[in-house]
Amino acid sequence: MYAERQYVETQISALEQIMFTEQYADKVIERVLSEQPYWDLLKRKTFVTDTYNIIRWWRKLTVALNGDDNKSVLVWSIWGAYQLLSTSKVPDWPEFKSLDIDKLNNNLAQASIAQVNSYPDWLWQKASEELGEQWPLIAQGLNVPAKTYLRANTLKCSLSDLKTSLAQEKIECEHLPSSEALEVTQYGHLFKSQAFSQGWFEMQDAGSQQIAQLLEPKAGQRVVDACAGAGGKSLHIAALMQNKGYVLAMDIHQHKLDTLKKRAKRAGVHMLETREIKNSKTIKRLKNKFDRVLLDVPCSGTGVLRRNPDAKWLLKSENINALVSLQAEILQRYSQMCKPGGRLVYATCSILPSENQQQVQTFLANNTQFKLVEELHLQPGINSDFDGFYGAALERQG
Ligand SMILES: C[S@@+](CC[C@H](N)C(=O)[O-])C[C@H]1O[C@@H](n2cnc3c(N)ncnc32)[C@H](O)[C@@H]1O
Fold it and tell me: Where is the active site (predicted)?
């Protein structure tokens, strides 16, 4: 624990911005760290881990302090309760005088399961209804801090080249036997490394890396990534195709595609084009044009709560209902881009069946020319140490 006044005040201010002004945690943390260039690596890492943990456990900490979570609490008290419950220590400052570990534990002993696991009631209930007895395990799995994974850009280097290069800058990685990903085990300035400036890697969760694999893109094919965002998966697809063929990356947001263009340049990808989706004609014109179609649709993000714990508090049940309708529409309309004989992958970073297999089952019932050939369920707490992902590979019959 860093018990320096300036450090703690900085953390409290970051927490206030995240929890009370609805700014994304990763953006606030990035800004704070850029304002503290003299903090060493350990201090930076502790700041990131603790800030995410406090956000993750916000509801539990509030209930521990108050006995319920109807009344607001001071962020100082939340910070103190977190330290006391996780390290049994708290600085001897006036702000923490009234904190008492026995009282915190007594309050928690009477709390509900959603409170103890620190989820909003509506989400606990919805996920319980959809996932039954799997949910409490997944809920715990999603409360584990996220690890950092890298994808080696095989257009420029091998996994072992990347590992060696990073080790020279004191960044240690381990190759995970079950995947192509590298897990970062000893941190350093990843984005200032030579390997990064040369485009040797992308930071990408190991689960996310399985989605492009599921698409099975081959060199020389025509592939569309229709919800490409900033292109994490488009770049992986290009690497799997050895930079041969054609990748069209589309999104409704041009600014994301602009970021993708910069990333593609750094990664040495030169067979990728971007196109903004302005209206339904953009998709209609591409009917039957692609061997591979990736639909990495907008979703609740409930699979990536390890990485984005603030989403627990930002997400609303009505957002999920709107997303489910949008996903069904995207799947129905964009699937027309797949050639007969081609492969389509529908993917989400959600753990909810209503966004995953139920969407695919409804689509298959209405589109008998498609057949399900493979399904991927990555469920933290059940079968995965990565983020939660779902993918369904469908083949369009010839
Ligand atoms: C899950 S994110 C994609 C992440 C990206 N594939 C990656 O690997 O980095 C979903 C994307 O869908 C985009 N999107 C939202 N509505 C869309 C629509 N109607 N058509 C296409 N893309 C859409 C969002 O802008 C967002 O970038």
Answer: 349 (nucleophile)
217 and 334 in a single domain? The answer is yes
385 annotated among ligand-binding-site residues = no
The atom of ligand 1 lying closest to the CA of 299 is: 1
Can you point out the beta strands (E) in 235-287? 246-251, 272-276
Give the tens place of pLDDT for each residue, 11-56: 999 999 999 998 999 999 999 999 999 999 999 999 999 999 999 9
Q: Is the CB of 252 under 6 A from ligand 1?
A: yes
Shared domain for 260 and 382, answered yes or no, is yes
CATH code of the domain covering residue 156: 3.30.70.1170
127 in a structural domain: no
Residue in the structure block whose two tokens are 């485009």: 199
> What's at 257, amino acid-wise?
L
Does 233 contact ligand 1 (Cβ within 6 A)?
yes
Q: Report the candidate in 277, 257, 378, 395 with the shortest Cα–Cα distance to residue 330.
A: 277
Same domain for 356 and 312? Answer: yes
With b meaning 16 or more CB within 10 Å and e meaning fewer, what string describes 140-176?
Answer: ebbbeebbebbbbbbbbbebeebbebbeeeebebeeb
> For residue range 225-260, what is the model confidence (pLDDT) as tens digits?
999 999 999 999 999 999 999 999 999 999 999 999
Which residues is 347 bridged to in the sheet? 296, 391
* Number of structural domains the chain divides into: 3
Three-state DSSP class for residue 59: helix
Range(s) of the domain holding residue 340: 209-396
Q: Is 296 among the annotated ligand-binding positions?
A: yes
pLDDT of residue 177: 78
In short, whether 253's Cβ falls inside 6 Å of ligand 1 is yes
Is 299 labeled as catalytic in the residue annotation? no
Give the C-alpha separation, 3 to 300, whole Å.
Answer: 36
pTM: 0.96
The answer to whether residue 375 is domain-embedded is yes
- Measured from the Cα of 334, ligand 1's closest atom is 20
* 193 plus 215 within the same structural domain: no
- ipTM above 0.90 for this complex: yes
Residue ending a domain, among 66, 98, 118, is 118
**Per DSSP, what are the bridge partners of residue 374?**
393
